[in-house]
């Protein structure tokens, strides 16, 4: 089988949904599984619903707005009597019913039960539209196949059970399912992390021993930099798994960090292509491909620089690191860059859940802490270190780290 993943931009409105069918016309839909994200900015809108719910705001009004947008999209795709309108209403009824009955104060749990509905609705609309234009498919609930623990918003996949579930699918059929979501042992929805739909596609590719996986984006492929942030960038036509993993780790938004590992394990080729120009080759990521080692630029924004020092000027030793890393894991704060000296440790951190102040307060019982918020991590891969000065021009540098071919600079 082959796996196609379509993100939110590729299904943001009725014309975009119709374009998915055009992509399938050029690429083929036989023995294919489609993984679909929520439409456009639906995830952001549903996050607002959750925020209003906990702040005792009018979340029902937000739900009505989101529902109306989906109905308007469907009205441009289907006849008025189509059953998809009832399906859309049921999904939104489920959100409202859950929020009325919910007793859990766990924000992350509530988040996953609500925000996951975006993928459920978009995949149902796409599945029904494809059927209406002649592409036969079965709609799958990804939660029946991808099983996780109960780490809400960052689910850890139970690979043994998940692989068994997915392998049971009929590989002669075609399917439409959701990205971003799985379920725990109690069948509560668990999301796989923001932008986790790429990871979902890789999980299905792994379980089905897919011959290839393609992610359809609004860019030509993996570029040497985000064209919205950097000038004179170019397409990387082929890179190795290892290079793609490095780029994802450093923050390249076109690749989800967890996506590559399951594909690499089974040597499944991975393509990033444009849904606007599906005939173009895009980027191929593979195990045996020549790796294009071209200078590439990555800007990871919304970071926090934390400087940690011992109170008595003693060395930062293993027992100190153990305390710090344990606290980071507890608050689900990820390290983007780490640098230590004799008596201090500098960490560039990704604070996805807004817990940095709590972490600071906890660590201040043992350390002196300095925070710099809203900084960015600028990374240059395959850099020509003989021309360092050009990377520093016009930047207020707070921290730098240089290895053989990678330059990283924390800037404010």
Structure description:
The protein has 412 residues and is an alpha/beta fold. Helix content is 36%, strand content 23%. The chain has helices spanning 14-27, 42-54, 59-75, 84-101, 107-115, 117-132, 159-167, 197-208, 241-250, 260-265, 318-330, 356-363, 389-392; strands at 2-6, 32-36, 138-139, 175-178, 181-183, 189-191, 212-217, 238-240, 270-274, 283-286, 296-310, 334-340, 344-350, 367-381, 397-402, 406-411. An eight-stranded mixed β-sheet has the order 3-4-2-1-7-9-10-8. A six-stranded antiparallel β-sheet has the order 12-13-11-14-16-15. Strand 15 (397-402) and strand 16 form a beta hairpin. The chain starts with a strand and ends with a strand.
SS summary, helix count: 13
Unreliable segments (pLDDT under 50, ≥5 consecutive)? none
Number of separate strands: 16
Q: Radius of gyration from the CA trace?
A: 23 Å
């Amino acid at each position: 089988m082959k796996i196609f993943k379509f993100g939110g931009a590729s299904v943001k409105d009725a014309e975009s949904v119709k374009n998915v069918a055009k992509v399938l016309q050029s690429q083929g839909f036989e023995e294919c599984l489609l993984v679909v994200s929520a439409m456009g900015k639906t995830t952001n809108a549903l996050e607002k619903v959750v925020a209003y719910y906990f702040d005792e705001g009018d979340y029902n009004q937000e739900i009505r707005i989101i529902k109306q947008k989906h109905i308007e999209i469907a009205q441009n795709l289907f006849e008025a009597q189509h059953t998809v309108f009832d399906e859309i209403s049921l999904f939104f009824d489920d959100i409202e019913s859950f929020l009325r009955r919910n007793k859990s104060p766990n924000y992350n749990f509530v988040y996953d039960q609500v925000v996951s509905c975006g993928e459920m609705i978009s995949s149902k609309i796409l599945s029904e539209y494809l059927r209406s234009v002649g592409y036969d498919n079965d709609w799958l609930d990804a939660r029946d196949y991808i099983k996780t623990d109960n780490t809400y918003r960052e689910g850890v996949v139970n690979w043994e059970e998940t692989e068994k579930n997915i392998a049971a699918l009929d590989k002669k059929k075609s399917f439409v399912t959701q990205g971003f979501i799985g379920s725990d042992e109690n069948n509560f929805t668990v999301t796989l992390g923001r932008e986790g739909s790429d990871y979902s596609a890789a999980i299905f590719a792994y379980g089905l021993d897919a011959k290839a996986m393609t992610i359809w984006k609004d860019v030509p492929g993996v570029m040497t930099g985000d064209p919205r942030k950097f000038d004179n960038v170019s397409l990387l036509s082929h890179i190795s798994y290892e290079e793609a993993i490095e780029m994802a780790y450093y923050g390249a938004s076109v690749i989800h960090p967890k996506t590559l590992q399951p594909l690499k394990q089974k040597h499944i080729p991975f393509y990033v292509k444009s849904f606007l120009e599906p005939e173009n080759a895009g980027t191929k990521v593979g195990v045996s491909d020549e790796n294009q080692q071209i200078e590439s630029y990555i800007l990871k924004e919304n970071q926090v620089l934390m400087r940690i020092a011992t109170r008595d000027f003693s060395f930062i030793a293993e027992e100190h690191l153990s305390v710090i890393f344990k606290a980071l894991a507890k608050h689900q704060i990820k390290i983007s860059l780490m640098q230590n000296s004799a008596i201090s440790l500098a960490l560039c951190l990704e604070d996805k859940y807004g817990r940095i102040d709590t972490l600071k307060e906890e660590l201040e019982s043992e350390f002196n802490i300095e925070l710099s918020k809203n900084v960015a991590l600028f990374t240059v891969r395959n850099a020509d270190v003989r021309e360092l000065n050009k990377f520093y021009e016009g930047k207020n540098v707070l921290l730098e780290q240089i290895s053989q071919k990678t330059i990283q600079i924390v800037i404010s």
